[in-house]
Amino acid sequence: MDKTLVVRFNYDDEKIDDYDVISYITDVLEDNKHPCIEFRLD
User: Fold this and answer.
1) DSSP run (H or E) holding 30
2) Is 38 left (phi over 0), alpha (psi -120 to 50) or beta?
């Protein structure tokens, strides 16, 4: 069965560039060791 995972990030686009957010997300996903983010399934 196919499943879709939707992840939402809130950020101020006047202070943070979209590219930086995408880069940050990919870094976290590759590492999965970031202290401020916890991945879990509910």
Assistant:
1) helix 18-31
2) beta
